[in-house]
Amino acid sequence: MKKISITIASKQGDDRNIMAALLAGQDDFTVSSIAGDDFDIVRSAMTLQPNVIVMDFYLEDHDTLRLVPVIKRNSPTTALIVLCHPKEHIVVDQVLKAGISGYLLKQDIDDLASAIRCVFYGGLYVSKAVKTQAFDYFSTDGTMKGIEKAPFCDTEYRLFTPTELQIFQGIIHGHSDGEIAENLNMSIGAIRNCIYHAKKKVGMRNRTQISLYALSRGMIAWENDFTKAKDVKNCS
Fold first, then answer.
1. Element at 104 (helix H, strand E)
2. pLDDT at residue 32 in the model
3. What is the per-residue pLDDT for 191?
4. What is the bridge-based pairing of β-strands 79-84 and 52-56?
5. By residue range, what is the domain housing residue 203?
6. Residues 6+ apart with CB under 8 A from 103
7. Judgement on whether residues 122 and 207 belong to the same structural domain of the protein
8. Number of folded domains in the chain?
9. Are residues 166 and 68 both part of a single domain?
10. CB 229 within 8 A of CB 159
């Protein structure tokens, strides 16, 4: 099994140790490097190109928003998660607009493993306390360009099959394709085929957008996770 390679970056030694300890027991993770400043992060991106970088929003010399373009130039496929203190009042839409896939409050550090898996598999992860702000960003920003702010209606609901909606629910909660497939008793190929056809129905580009589209229309909810549905496998 290929492991998810991770770089941990924090100016606080205690925070680095806590994150390393949290990730050490995960069979699908490998911590490829531990960084203490922005120079170490860029060097890691250049030389190791980790799958995920987890870093403080504020480092010694720069905030993360200024580092993102540098990291992306050197390692375009690396997903980024920022750690923020609730009192720092970081604007979530600025973080998402910069191309960062994860916004994790330090009070939710126990959710780090879930956040890493979520962004690695192409999802978006934000702490529950700021999900409303993230939702507002995707509802109004150009990322969902062309989607009217119409209220949810039954006609729109029927655009998607029950299986598709359960897949979206799994994506919102950060489950991998394998986990969703196991839960719904489907193959991974069938899951990806469903996602592909669902995106075509409304002209979306990726699974995050289609899942947030369903969320914005009330078809799925943050509070729910997907449930077993052995009898619904039709994605047409």
1. strand 102-105
2. 93
3. 92
4. parallel
5. 146-216
6. 81, 82, 84, 90, 92, 95, 96, 125, 126, 127, 130, 134
7. no
8. 2
9. no
10. no
